[in-house]
From TrEMBL:
UniProt KW Transmembrane keyword: yes
Protein name (Swiss-Prot/TrEMBL): Uncharacterized protein
Transmembrane segments: 49-75, 82-100, 120-138
Keywords: Membrane, Transmembrane, Transmembrane helix
C-alpha cells in the first residue's frame, strides 16, 4: 500500500472507531453506594472542564483525544512530531485502565470504577490504531527516503 493510502486508511479507521465509541458506555462506577453508568459522549463533553471540579488527573487523561486530533493534523502535514504526540496519547489512554477511582463530584468525592465498558475499549482502540498507523507510515517514509 502506498504512503498516502496508509495515511488516510489509518485516519479514517481511527476516526470511525472513535465515533462508534461515542455511542457506547465508557464506565460503570460506584458513587455513594449507587451504581452509575457513564456514556463515552458524556465524558467527551464533561472532560474538558473537569479541572474546574478538581479533576486535574482526569483532565490529563481527557487530553488523549485532543492529542489524537493534533497527531492527525501533523500526520496529514507529514510532520514527524505526529509519532511523539500519538505515543503520548496512547500512554495516557492506556494508563487510565490502571485507575481504580475517578472523581465522582465537584466536592472531591471519589467514585470507585466498577468496570470499563465497550466505549472505553473502543476509544483506546481508536488511539492505538492511530498510533500504529502513524508508526507504520513513518517507517515506510523513512525506508522510501533512504532508498532514494
Amino acid at each position: 500500500m502506498e504512503l498516502r493510502g496508509i495515511k488516510f486508511t489509518t485516519i479514517g479507521l481511527s476516526l470511525l472507531v472513535f465515533a462508534i465509541s461515542l455511542t457506547q458506555n465508557a464506565l460503570v462506577v460506584n458513587y455513594n453506594n449507587e451504581i452509575k453508568t457513564a456514556s463515552s459522549l458524556e465524558y467527551l463533553f464533561i472532560g474538558s472542564v473537569t479541572f474546574m471540579g478538581g479533576g486535574l488527573l482526569e483532565e490529563i487523561i481527557w487530553l488523549a483525544s485532543p492529542l489524537c486530533l493534533l497527531a492527525i493534523v501533523l500526520m496529514i502535514k507529514d510532520d514527524k512530531r505526529a509519532v511523539l504526540v500519538s505515543l503520548i496519547a496512547s500512554a495516557l489512554a492506556i494508563s487510565f485502565s490502571f485507575w481504580h477511582e475517578i472523581l465522582g463530584a465537584e466536592s472531591g468525592t471519589m467514585a470507585k470504577i466498577v468496570s470499563f465498558e465497550l466505549g472505553y475499549y473502543l476509544w483506546l482502540s481508536s488511539i492505538l490504531i492511530l498510533t500504529i498507523g502513524i508508526l507504520i507510515h513513518y517507517k515506510m517514509t523513512l525506508k522510501t527516503t533512504l532508498q532514494a
